[in-house]
Predict the 3D structure of the following.
Amino acid sequence: MTEATKAYIVTLSYVKNNMNKPETKFYQSLKSHRPKPPGPWWDMIRLESSTMAGIPDLSVVSYRFLEDKKTLISQEFWVELKAQAAAHPRIRPSQFQWLLRRTMLGRDCWLMNQHPETKEIKMWHFHEKIQAERKSQDRIAILDLPNYRFDNVQELISQDPTRFTK
């Protein structure tokens, strides 16, 4: 078996094992409900990286036309998706560091958590003084109160996406 074939099998195994993860289902729900032009809309790209520790799940670009209906405004933000029942979602230290570093470089970064049973969505906007606490060697809990709460994906997606950028 060639090295390329082995790498392909490992990739297929990774994809198959992650298809049923709650975060994957959360992303699929976001993607299927996202708004489309001509109103404000989102372009989302899901990232899976085994080479760059901590990179968030989504790169999102929000678009909208100004009142002249000719000028297009776009803004990018990053989103780490979680599907946890905990009041304070937990992320890996590498994820926390990546989001905080990008925030300090002037980028908008969010942690978006969907409760696996109620489907309520809470969003935390990362900032330089975000309150967090190490809960174990491999988990950090976000202690800040969420910036936004939505009952479900449809309510979240109905928002003007530029609301989530500076």
Remarks:
- Strands lie at 41-46, 58-65, 72-82, 90-91, 108-114, 121-125, 132-136, 139-142, 148-150.
- The helical segments are 3-18, 22-33, 93-104, 153-157.
